Amino acid sequence: MIRRRSHPVVMWFSLGILSCGAGLSAAEYTDTMFMNDTTKSARTGRVVSVDPGQVRLEVPLSAGGPGAKMSVSVPRVQIERIEFAANESREQLLSDPDLGDIHEIGVLWKLWESALDFPKSPAARIGNIYAGLLLQTNDLARAQTALELFTRIEQQSWDEGDKILAGQGRLRAMVATGNAAGAVAEAEQLAIDSENPEVLIEAKFILAEAAKSRLVELQEDNPRWDEDINVRPERERLYHESLELYLYPYLFFGSETESASRGLWGVITVYQLDHDVPAAIEASRDLVKLYPQTTFAKQAGEYLASLPEDQLQQDNEKEAQYENPAATETKN
User: Fold this and answer.
1) pTM score of the predicted model
2) Among 27-31, 102-106, 172-176, whose mean pLDDT is lowest?
3) 116 contact partners, CB below 8 Å, separation of at least 6
4) What burial class does residue 245 get, using C-beta atoms within 10 Å of its C-beta: 0-12 exposed, 13-18 middle, 19+ buried?
5) Contact 107/16 with Cβ under 8 angstroms?
């Protein structure tokens, strides 16, 4: 069930833009704007909106009673940089997002998108999370929006880490919008050129998804592939290529929880295509045991729960040890 939460950060920003609602205490005005003047003067307040030409800053007033405030608009050309304050409510929203938060995060993105190039602004992080949620809806129009958003972040973000994440998201969005060939071609090149583990992991995953798709298509077009000597080699190649690519993060970057668990779930789906239930069971048990807090572990657990008890009694590892006791003794 999709959970829905109320996050005061979105409400606060909305009220701030409309210039209504209760005022903030002086302690809450903690964004600091450094100016481009000769003295490098600074203004402290709360950034309530950013657009391509100016930044609107809300500042407390010493006169006028508790909560008294005013808004000033500062041209961007006059600003050297902004030190954006941490925001507990915003962090709560972004640290554990799900589809139930998509509207609130979308509103937050609209408020921050013009600050994408401002150093230390949270805009790129917000945008990446929002675009990822759009992809999760499996809606073509939203996937197209996600593609445009990821592309924009990759081109305009001030933060290199967010640019990398946006690039990875863009590949997934390309696949979701029907340009799998383009995504695969780019992923193949990234797998050759990149030394960044995160980029490599995402490139391998795109290639794994593409190999599995070709495997599914081949089996559907050739239901008796196992009897066709002209088809069987290609089928076996795609099968093993899919497994190898999905396993990459688990084998080489096992501490990357989400990527490794996603890859293990991919392995399970390939075993299911092969009707290899014992292997799927073993991989599912590994996934549940190693990465119990992930979404993919939940899926693996649901798969195990759907199987009859007699199938769950099978254990390939124990059978292998029984059939080859010398190997077990050597390992010990």
Assistant:
1) 0.69
2) 27-31
3) 123, 124, 127, 152, 153, 156, 157, 158
4) buried
5) no
According to the model, what pLDDT value does residue 317 have? 53
Structure tokens at 226: 């196992």
Alpha helices (H) in the chain, listed in sequence order? 8-18, 88-95, 102-112, 123-136, 140-156, 160-176, 180-193, 197-221, 232-252, 257-273, 277-290, 295-305, 309-312, 316-323, 325-331
pLDDT tens, position by position, 117-160: 888 889 999 999 999 999 999 899 999 999 999 999 999 998 89
- The alpha carbons of the chain give a radius of gyration, in whole angstroms, of 26
Cα–Cα distance, 316 to 282 (Å, whole number): 7
Query: Can you give the pLDDT at residue 245?
Result: 96
Which residue reads 């080489």 in tokens?
A: 252
What is the percent of the chain where pLDDT is above 70?
85
Tokens of 331: 């390992």
Q: How far is CA 21 from CA 13, 16, 58, 61, 87, in A?
A: 11, 8, 13, 16, 19
Task: Please state whether beta strands 79-83 and 69-75 pair in parallel, antiparallel, or not at all (unpaired).
Answer: unpaired
Stated as kind and residue range, the H or E segment containing 39 is: none
Quote the CA–CA distance of 265 and 290 in Å, as a whole number: 12
Question: Domains in the chain, ordered, with CATH?
Answer: 8-171 (no CATH), 194-331 (1.25.40)
C-alpha closest to that of 35 among 78, 87, 73, 95: 78
Averaged over 47-72, what is the pLDDT? Answer: 81
Q: 57: which strand partners? A: 47, 72
Q: What is the dihedral of CA 300, 302, 305, 306, to 10 degrees?
A: -110
